[in-house]
Amino acid sequence: EVQLVESGGGLVQPGGSLRLSCAASEFAFSGYAFNWVRQAPGKGLEWVSYISSNSNDIYYADSVKGRFTISRDNAKNSLYLQMNNLRAEDTAVYYCARDTPRIAVAGCFHYWGQGVLVIVSS
Amino acid sequence: DIQMTQSPSSLSASVGDRVTITCQASQDISNYLNWYQQKSGKAPKLLIYDASNLEIGVPSRFSGSGFGTDFTFTISSLQPEDFATYYCQQYDNLPYTFGQGTKLEIK
User: With contact defined as beta carbons under 8 Å apart, do B49 and B100 qualify?
Assistant: First the structure.
């Protein structure tokens, strides 16, 4: 069964940094694109970032561009989100989500991790 | 950015009811539309992709339709485990965007 397990969340002061990780297992990690999606407390879903299977294509939401960096290590079956210059509005549960295996299609989140909470507060 | 407008925002219904949620895109997105279910405290779950394709393992009481800008999600006969929040999401253009959600509650 596909498993995605996020870690690295916690409480951080405004302007601070955190690095989220998503450990994948039970499937061929290197063959899939991934995304980060977040959900502020009591709010809806917001797509944050995308990375292709070979890291050649990377995209960000405008709200995090220049502050967040997505990356992956296919040898370690892991996805990362480096978050710098954090703001109160970045407070949310962050989910890693595996994208569709279909060729020339992206943006279908077939599998999700359980999520990790990031709180930005002084 | 493509805006996704879901309606209603909340809905009360009874077990056995037929329920329909609509989602309107601010521009033509072809059939690049997904539907997710999210239960409280849990990650979203993909139910429908490409507007009308049922994800593997999802019960057939769930269905979707539509093309272009107007889409519909239907539960043919509500079950107790279906009470949750539902989101539409477009993947025609980046940034991928979600509707605001429809909270389905027990009447």
Answer: no
Out of A45, A59, A62, whose CB is closest to B87?
Answer: A45
Quick: pLDDT tens for A31-66: 999 999 999 999 999 999 999 999 999 999 999 999
Q: Which residues in chain A have Cβ-Cβ distances shorter than 8 Å to B97?
A: 47
Q: Do B34 and A47 touch (CB under 8 A)?
A: no
What gap in Å lies between CA B107 and CA B101, rounded to an integer?
18
CA torsion through residues A64, B34, A92, A7, sign: negative
Region A101-119 average pLDDT:
92
Peptide bond into B95 cis (omega under 30): yes
By the 8 A CB rule, do B104 and B19 touch?
yes
The residues that bridge with A30 in the sheet, in sequence order, are none
- The 3-class SS string of A20-80 reads EEEEEECCCHHHCCEEEEEECCCCCEEEEEEECCCCCCEEECCCCCCCEEEEEECCCCEEE
Interface of A with B in 28-47 (CB under 8 A): 35, 37, 44-47
- The C-alpha of A46 sits at a distance from chain B's nearest C-alpha, in angstroms, of 7
